[in-house]
């Protein structure tokens, strides 16, 4: 039970929903002038999320759950660090790349593997 609670906590602590919800605003403040372009580029993050979940479906049994969770966490942390640098340097393209990398790492690991682990822990 404790493991399930910690997994749920860390799954929500990634704040992946915030990246999707605030992507246009983050991109605008990182240097994209046009709101329509910011929304268009933000949709690339959602497409990246779908690609990551699809990738997770194929990797969860081959690569292993622990490898995906730990590896995805490292890549997501690096992507968030890159996003902080890009935001501070007013580099919109780098910020978009960092958000896509974060979403791909999160979706290929925590987004899919979390639910597999929950069902296995309580079955």
From TrEMBL:
Family to which the UniProt record says this protein belongs: Belongs to the major facilitator superfamily. Sugar transporter (TC 2.A.1.1) family.
Highest taxon, organism lineage: Eukaryota
Domain Major facilitator superfamily (MFS) profile: 1-123
Keywords: Membrane, Signal, Transmembrane, Transmembrane helix, Transport
Keyword Transmembrane helix: yes
Upper lineage: Eukaryota, Viridiplantae, Chlorophyta, Mamiellophyceae, Mamiellales
A GO term for molecular function: transmembrane transporter activity
Protein name: Major facilitator superfamily (MFS) profile domain-containing protein
Protein localization: Membrane
Membrane spanning residue stretches: 39-60, 67-87, 93-117
Main location: membrane
Signal peptide: 1-15
GO cellular component: membrane
Membrane topology per record: Multi-pass membrane protein
